[in-house]
Design goal:
It is a single chain. By secondary structure, this protein is α+β, with helices and mostly antiparallel strands. It has one domain (about 15-115): Metallo-beta-lactamase, Chain A. It contains two helices and six strands; from the N terminus they run E-E-E-E-H-E-E-H. The protein has helices at about 75-85, 105-115; strands at about 25, 30-35, 45-50, 55, 90-95, 100. Strands 1-2-3-4-5-6 form a six-stranded mixed beta sheet, with no helix packed on it.
Length: about 120
């Protein structure tokens, strides 16, 4: 990806790996890690069931899905990811770009499934 922006990729270290089903707990929240490939092979979302919050990174936005035309993008994997996300009762969507979305998330994801795939 660095090449697209005429940059040099910098090495970094990983403190720990997250896997599908892991929990990320804070003082006020307990997020479940969900592997959500499609935008990239290693994409994840964090879902807080009791508060119905989805942190989606670049998988899902207020009005669109993550791009699948870049390196690592996979439309078939994204379709499966959207099917998984369409079953979640989400009230608050926090994506990697843009403003939070409140309500209507399940319907939006179902519309993506019907219109994009």
């Amino acid at each position: 990806m660095a090449d697209l922006f005429e940059k040099q990729a910098q090495a970094c270290s990983v403190d720990f790996l997250l896997e599908d089903g892991d929990a990320v707990d804070t003082e006020n929240y307990s997020f479940k890690v969900m592997h959500t490939p499609g935008h990239t092979p290693g994409s994840i979302c964090l879902y807080e069931k009791s508060k119905k919050i989805l942190i989606s990174g670049d998988t899902l936005f207020d009005n669109n899905m993550g791009r699948m035309d870049l390196s690592g993008g996979d439309p078939e994997a994204m379709k499966k990811t959207m099917e998984k996300l369409s079953k979640l009762p989400v009230e608050i969507l926090l994506s990697g770009h843009g403003q939070p979305r409140y309500g209507g998330i399940q319907l939006m994801v179902k519309q993506f499934l019907a219109n994009q795939f």
